[in-house]
Fold:
Amino acid sequence: MNNTLSRSAVCLFLLCGGVATAPAGDGGETPPKAEPRVIDPGPPPSDAIVLFDGKDLSQWKSEKDGGPARWEVKEGVATVNGTGSITTRQAFGDCQLHVEWAAPAEVKGEGQGRGNSGVYLQERYEIQVLDSFNNKTYYDGQAAAVYKQQAPLVNACRRPGEWQTYDIVYHAPRFDGAGKLLQAATVTVLHNGVLVQDHVEIKGSTGPSGAPKYVAHPLKQSLMLQDHANPVRFRNIWIRDL
Ligand code: MG
Structure:
């Protein structure tokens, strides 16, 4: 048998005999018994918890004093105003998160001082918000970086003033009873629909200096948005428990 004939024979075997003898479902898995739930994809999806719909910040509190969140809310938008970071009243673990943000249209400052805010998963793992349009800084500190740990795969930043989206899939870390890390947190981020963090392992709490390290915490923690003294705007924030 020549090579072409031999390859054809192998293909024929795979198409016929090969498939016939393979276990059902490729891996022989038991087919799922429950039908996937039907939801309205929205946006926001019907099974999402809406954290900000443009009306008020009742789902949020001040990180400083636990009082009401005091960012300015006007025309469907919440704007950072120097009153401090805000955290959700509800705690979350594994989740899918959607956030829309815009850096100030009027460009002021540079590097980390331009349109800086942040989405802090579980109050301690920051996905950086920054005006990274024609604004150089350290790569793991630009928009959509896991701050000081992982630069984004590409810079998908829109112009200052334009609305941008983060879609985040996050799996919380697991600790044992003694506080030992069993499983690191992972995060996937799409910035304006573009994959920029691909199931990245988070190395510990993010911060400006020192090696990241895990400190044990409950499975569910609040989400936090950072006040970095730049008037970054937010709208349409929703989350789905996973
Ligand atoms: Mg920040």
In short: The CA atoms of residues 11 and 17 lie 10 Å apart.
